[in-house]
Write a structure and sequence with these properties.
The complex is a heterodimer of chains A (386) and B (956). Chain A has 386 residues and is α/β, with parallel strands linked by helices. Chain A has 2 domains: 254 residues, Vaccinia Virus protein VP39 (Rossmann fold, 3-Layer(aba) Sandwich), CATH 3.40.50.150; 123 residues, no CATH class. Chain A contains 12 helices and 13 strands. In chain A, the strands form 3 sheets. Chain A has an 8-stranded mixed sheet with strand order 6-7-5-4-1-2-3-8, sandwiched between helices. Chain B contains 28 helices and 39 strands. In chain B, the strands form 8 sheets. A 12-stranded mixed sheet of chain B has the order 32-31-30-33-34-39-38-37-22-1-35-36, sandwiched between helices. In chain B, strands 2, 8, 9, 10, 11, 12 and 21 form a 7-stranded antiparallel sheet that branches. Classes of the chains: A alpha/beta (386), B alpha+beta (956). Chains A and B meet through helix 3, helix 4, helix 7 and helix 12 of A and helix 10, helix 13 and helix 16 of B.
Chain lengths: 386, 956
């Protein structure tokens, strides 16, 4: 298991027989498989995803960019020597601290086999077994469905495996990888998959990646894929709590900073709020103003004309909110206006929440109804000579 | 992924391999290490500028420079002091008018850093024979000319050779320790007979000192074995290299240290040469492990491995590596209102010193900014026309280092592409065309929201080892680029600086506390201990302590008066303004230019000058007051019409800190129409309570610029010429670098001759040195009627790893120039001292149970100096808060045969001779003059200043 490192393209299989034309996939086949998974993730927005046989963790790395995922788990029998490279790719970077994710994300790598049961993998939304089953010997293959479908029983399972019908197109006529115990044709795979699906109450659809070259369409995709979806109607019964059973050894685990943590939320929120107020401030400085009750108020709507706002509806919403104003050398932006900015609104949903958060991070006016900043900074003083 | 390789195609035409190359100089030879990021971030913050001659506190080093421009005479020093010493009180800005913003270097961080690592890596040592001859007694019968040529020639060849060699050594090795290690094995003391016995002085009052070093109490005592690892095919990425090797952990064993190309093992492998096969994705990589040598326990090479091990340990302690240092994100401090986050961290190195091997640890900070390049661009859009201020954006962005979130990389912005936008297509590595928007969505699930923003262009990292490969420009979307380092805007915002200083400028107590914490974690973390035990490494948990000496306060002579510098604050500002100056120039013909709306400021300045000048002994006549408008054009036109050969001084009042205005004026008055000039920003003259102080400073500064002198000190030198050299590397514009060369003209060291050397980036100083030195000697001879008997060179601006290059090139070059000027057997002597300000070693004294900064004048020449060097530390300046940074001096050549006492005495005294500050600065005055000169030329005038100004401190 764990050999989804296989084939960058199929080139490496044919080195010895250069006479036959090399079939090259674009993008490389392994990427096509990963993109297939990515698309599915995009579509179903799973929260908990496990990759059985994560190999070099490339798929896990690609999946970590998906905002919907909160738990990302990899299992591999060879996970022993988690390398520096994997660790640094999967660990949060400085950027992840600067722009925290909306939701938490934990990535965990386990050493273990897909035919052992570990209760920590129960209850996932998506499990992927990319180029995994063909590495299982017949004994393990027999146990596999019981563990993955029966015990783990995730909402969706993706299983990919080579399509042996495609093999004649390759120069070498052996298996695609030395460790492959078998390579099935479409019929074999589909029969196996349908049986398993029936047994564990899943429905399955077949597809694949790596289209055959013109003229050889009959052989089908190079990689065949089965997508299994649990039939929800009867899913409830599996909710019986399973006894804790920790067989897998944790080799790596990391948690990403997210907006769920208040500190991070404050940081992002104040940056966003300051950005909005800054754009209005610059506008305010050059726009015509009038004096009302000791406040300097813009005559126009004082809405920034670029960035920050994308649609007319958003603009209209901002325009209809209370205007910013100026008293002395201070510039005030009502919280009710701030919250109309899409990027602020995305972070907090009510003025009350905005107030309580901002009061911890930035300066508000006395009645806590508006953000207070200096009207002039270095730039406006020197550049906007007016 | 890696869209960049694709992007590059698009821009093929942009890359002018030639032009790009010029810039690099600043970078250390070590390549890919985001020099930038670090510079950008931590440096920006943590190592700020170098302008401030006077101490600034420890971690906050950078902060000291918060305000840049020095020209405005007035404020500078005060400002400096304020920041340096903590600024509390002292009349707020009083002292420190924020005078001239203009000269404030725009990317201070960069420049400063740049210069530090200036010259290219040292060429490999020449064959011993040649070296000797060059250094020694001039075997060459012909003068220096030929020698120089030959040297230059050799150098070229060597550079080539070097490039090859560098390519051969591992990335990691070069990256982290290359420089320091190269320097530390250079034995410069072997040629210095007179200090064979001891490099320790005796003058002064002994004081017990502590330093932030921890002794290594135990280390492997057996032989270790070094193996070379070869990859077939070759792998560039250090991480991948290490991963491939670790696939054979069982074979090499748990206990190993790998530096990227060589492996250190405590045991011998069965065979001297083993071939292994690793898998990289699907690719088979052949590893050849070949025995190189046995390392004896005290081999310097071992230390390099210990350092690698130590970094591994820091990683285990859950510190996050950013650039080259490690940071503790758990203890982050957020500054919401400044959109900043600070991570505390550590800089460490294990090196061998006088009597023992120690771990030097210092606290350092990383600054994260929650601001993108896009924010900056939109912030500079004209709110009305929606149009970006193209010029202003370029000014602020170009040369800065940005950080791209999605791949955790840093890039230097070289240009801005206003034509394209994120909807532009580029070619991916596969050949497919894709827009930036789609690319980021597909690859990183990241949405670009503003589709009209321009793109940033980065020409990629400069790598010396890849000189021959063409640079491929990379395009970046501003919205996804986070800014790093402190911007000028932030530096000018005293609130930002104040908040940062509070956190980053640690006083000795807090510093010790932080370092204790580090050492405790090392002792208690089980994993760390296991790793250390494998190698039998142990560290003492207490600061190393020893005895230093405090030199006597220095007597300052000003006219007929003499006074001592304050023993604690190292300052004499009060004394200096209460009596006549040493050498006074009267102000007879001078101009004041002011923008119409700043008439008030100008006239109040004149009034104040009239009040303060008589005390100083300056006779001042009425200035010609000229009104100008706020443009460079207007200033220069007025100057053209009114500056005559009689004009002694031009004082320009500026309405704001606009750099282009300042640059324009300086350019005109330094090159086209050479006249000493003084700029003042009107705002600094606003406050009546500080006006007198500022006027005093301005008067003193003008006096110096006209060739006067403020004070002098006794140096004990006779017939000796002092030279200060410092470099400025304009990384921002990838222009040439400039070396300032400042030499004394008179015996009293009150007059200085200033020249600049323009060098192609990365070039050695060699050729320019000769011309400068000859001109300097000529002028000295003219003033003194004879040639100096000794030349003392203080060389600043030397990067890590360049010591050997200095020994091989600069010193011989100076010697050969001397030979060509002096008659045979003249017996002229030369002392060459390398000055280093960027060091991590700190010293503390204990007083009333608390650690404090040592007093100014504290000299350290034991324990943390090196056996192979004639070196010492001096804490010359005083800082009010934070930890003082000592300056390291390394005498690498000395035919004058200074005793340690004499050279320390002289060096300390020279730190009193900087006329822009009535106090002691960090480096000898000539070094700082050289810095100021190079800085002014590099930042503002970009050309050689007119020679008629050369014997005045026009750049003060």
């Amino acid at each position: 298991m764990g050999e989804n490192k296989e084939c960058n393209s199929m080139v490496d299989n044919c080195e010895e027989v250069p006479t036959k034309e090399v079939i090259e996939f674009r993008p490389p086949l392994y990427k096509q498989r990963y993109f297939f998974v990515k698309n599915l993730v995009q579509q179903h927005k799973p929260k908990k995803v496990a990759d059985l046989g994560f190999g070099d963790a490339t798929l896990i790395w690609m999946l970590k960019y998906h905002h919907c995922i909160e738990h990302l788990v990899g299992v591999d029998t060879y996970a022993g020597s988690t390398s520096q490279w994997e660790i640094s790719n999967l660990s949060p970077s400085v950027g992840d601290y600067l722009v925290p994710r909306d939701l938490d994300l934990t990535i965990t790598l386990y050493r273990g086999s897909a035919v052992q049961k570990d209760s920590r993998l129960v209850g996932f939304d998506l499990m992927t077994c990319i180029e995994l089953i063909e590495h299982l010997d017949s004994e393990d293959l027999a146990k596999f469905p019981e563990v993955v479908f029966g015990y783990y029983s995730p909402r969706i399972i993706i299983i990919s495996t080579p399509n042996s019908e495609f093999n004649p197109l390759f120069p070498a006529s052996t298996f695609r990888h030395l460790d492959h115990k078998f390579e099935w044709n479409r019929m074999q795979f589909q029969t196996w998959a349908s049986d398993v699906a029936n047994l564990y109450n899943y429905s399955v659809e077949f597809t694949g990646v790596g289209s055959p070259p013109a003229g050889a369409e009959h052989v089908g995709y190079c990689t065949q894929i089965g997508v299994f979806q649990k039939n929800e109607a009867k899913a409830t019964e599996s909710c019986i709590s399973t006894p804790e059973e920790h067989v897998y050894e944790t080799v790596f685990t990391t948690a990403y900073p997210s907006l769920q943590e208040k500190k991070n939320l404050l940081l992002v929120l104040s940056a966003e709020v300051l950005r909005a107020s800054n754009s209005m401030r610059l506008r305010f400085i050059v726009d015509p103003k009038k004096k009302v009750n000791g406040r300097l108020v813009p005559e126009d709507s004082c809405v920034p004309r670029y960035g920050l706002i994308v649609t007319d509806a958003q603009r209209a919403q901002i325009e209809s909110s209370p205007k910013p104003y100026c008293v002395g050398k201070k510039f005030y932006v009502p919280l009710e206006r701030l919250i109309t900015f899409p990027k602020v609104n995305r972070l907090v949903d009510s003025v009350e929440r905005l107030r309580s958060l901002l009061s911890e991070a930035l300066k508000l006016n006395r009645d806590q109804s508006a953000l207070q900043v200096d009207l002039h900074d270095h730039y406006s003083r020197t550049m906007l000579s007016y | 992924m890696r869209g960049k390789s694709g992007v590059t195609h698009l821009l093929g035409t942009l890359g002018h391999p030639g032009t790009e190359r010029t810039s690099r100089k600043g970078r250390s030879p070590a390549p890919p290490r985001p020099a930038p990021p670090r510079r950008g971030w931590d440096c920006g913050a943590a190592r700020g500028g170098r302008g401030c001659p006077r101490g600034r506190g420890g971690a906050g080093r950078g902060l000291g420079r918060a305000r840049g421009p020095e020209d405005p005479p007035a404020g500078r020093p005060a400002a400096r002091r304020r920041l340096g010493r903590g600024g509390a009180g002292r009349g707020g800005r009083a002292g420190g008018p924020d005078v001239t913003g203009p000269s404030a270097p725009p990317r201070r961080g960069c420049c400063s850093r740049a210069r530090e690592r200036a010259p290219p890596p040292p060429p490999p040592p020449p064959p011993p024979g040649r070296e000797r001859s060059a250094r020694g007694h001039g075997l060459g019968p012909r003068g220096g000319g030929h020698a120089a040529e030959a040297a230059a020639h050799c150098q070229e060849g060597e550079e080539l050779q070097l490039a090859t060699r560098l390519r051969a050594t591992s990335l990691k090795e070069r990256k982290h320790f290359g420089g320091i290690f190269r320097d530390h094995v250079v034995d410069t003391r072997q040629y210095l007979e007179h200090v064979r016995e001891s490099t320790t002085g005796t003058l002064g009052r002994p004081v017990k000192l502590f330093t932030n070093h921890f002794r290594v109490t135990s280390r492997p005592q057996q032989v270790t074995y070094k193996y070379n690892i070869d990859y077939m095919p070759d792998i560039e990425d250090g991480k991948v290299r290490s991963e491939l090797l670790l696939q054979h952990k069982a074979f090499i064993g748990e206990c190993h240290i790998f530096d990227g190309s060589s492996l250190l093992l405590p045991h011998k492998l069965l065979l001297p040469k083993t071939e292994l096969v690793s898998l990289l994705k699907n690719q088979v990589v052949k590893l050849t492990i070949e025995f190189i040598s046995e390392l004896s326990p005290n081999s310097p090479d071992c230390l390099r491995y210990y350092n690698i091990l130590f970094r591994r340990i820091l990683k285990q302690m859950n510190l996050k590596q950013v650039g080259r240092n490690y940071y503790n994100k758990q203890e982050a401090t957020e500054f919401f209102n400044h959109k900043l986050v600070i991570w505390p961290g550590y800089v460490t190195s294990i090196l061998e010193y006088e009597t023992s091997i120690t771990l030097c640890a210092d606290v350092n900070h990383k600054l994260l900014r929650m601001q993108t390049a896009y924010d900056l661009i939109t912030g500079l859009r004209d709110p009305q026309t929606r149009k970006e201020d193209v010029e202003q954006v370029s000014k602020e962005l170009i040369g800065s280092i940005v950080f791209t979130l999605y791949n955790n990389k840093t890039y230097r912005v070289d240009a801005i592409n206003w034509e394209d936008n994120p909807r532009t297509k580029f070619k991916k590595s596969g050949g497919a065309e894709i827009t930036f928007v789609d690319y980021y969505r597909e690859q990183y699930n990241t949405e670009v929201t503003d589709l009209t923003q321009p793109l940033l262009i980065s020409k990629g990292k400069w790598k010396k080892s890849q000189q021959d490969t063409p640079h491929k420009p990379i395009m970046l979307v501003p919205e996804l680029c986070y800014l790093t380092g402190l911007s000028d805007k932030m530096r000018k915002d005293y609130r930002v600086m104040r908040d940062l200083a509070l956190h980053m400028r640690l006083d000795p107590e807090r510093r010790q506390h932080e370092l204790r914490k580090l050492m405790n974690t090392i002792q208690t973390n089980r994993e760390v201990q296991r790793e250390l035990q494998l190698w039998d490494l142990k560290f003492d948990t207490n600061f190393v302590s020893f005895s230093g000496r405090i030199l006597k306060e220095v007597r300052i002579f000003q006219g007929r008066r003499a006074f001592d510098s304050h023993p604690q604050f190292a300052d004499w500002s009060r004394e200096t303004r209460s009596g006549p100056l040493l050498n006074v120039k009267s102000l007879d013909h001078w101009l004041i230019l002011y923008p119409t709306r700043n008439y008030g400021a100008a006239s109040s300045l004149v009034q104040s000058l009239r009040k303060v000048t008589p005390t100083m002994g300056i006779a001042m006549r009425e200035a010609k007051m000229l009104e100008v408008s706020d443009t460079v054009q207007s200033y220069t036109t007025v100057l053209e019409n009114h500056v005559s050969s009689k004009t002694q001084m031009v004082l320009c009042v500026l309405s704001s800190e606009k750099k282009d205005l300042y640059d324009g004026i300086k350019q005109y008055l330094c090159v086209k129409c050479p006249t000493p000039s003084q700029c003042v920003v009107a705002r600094t003259l606003d406050k009546p309570q500080t006006l007198m102080t500022i006027a005093t400073k301005i008067a003193q500064q003008m006096n110096c610029k006209m060739g006067g002198a403020l004070w002098k000190v006794e140096t004990g030198l006779q017939n000796a010429m002092c030279i200060g050299i410092d470099c400025f590397h304009d990384i921002v514009n990838r222009r040439k670098s400039i070396a300032g060369f400042v030499s004394s003209i008179n015996q009293e060291l009150t007059q200085w001759f200033s020249q600049c050397i323009f060098q192609e980036s990365g070039q050695e100083l060699v050729n320019g040195l000769k011309t400068c030195l000859e001109a300097a000697l000529k002028l000295w001879c003219k003033h003194n009627q004879f040639l100096p008997q000794a030349i003392i060179v203080y060389r600043d601006g030397v990067g890590d790893g360049q010591l050997q290059a200095l020994m091989d090139h600069e010193v011989p070059q100076i010697e050969s120039s001397l030979r060509s000027v002096y008659p045979k057997d003249s017996g002229v002597k030369l002392t060459f001292i390398v000055v280093k300000k960027r060091i991590n070693t700190r010293f503390f004294v204990e007083s009333q149970g608390r650690l404090q900064n040592p007093l100014p004048g504290t000299v350290i020449d034991v324990e943390v100096t090196k056996r192979q060097w004639y070196d010492f530390f001096i804490v010359s300046q005083s800082v009010k808060d934070g930890t003082v940074t000592p300056t390291h001096y390394n005498v690498i050549h000395d035919t004058v045969c200074f005793t340690p006492d004499r050279i320390q005495y002289l060096t300390y005294r020279l730190c009193h001779m900087y006329y822009n500050l009535p106090g002691v600065i960090r480096v000898p005055a000539p070094c700082h003059y050289a810095h100021k000169l190079a800085y002014l030329v590099g930042q503002s005038i970009h050309q050689e200043p007119h020679h008629s100004l050369a014997s005045r401190l026009f750049y003060l």
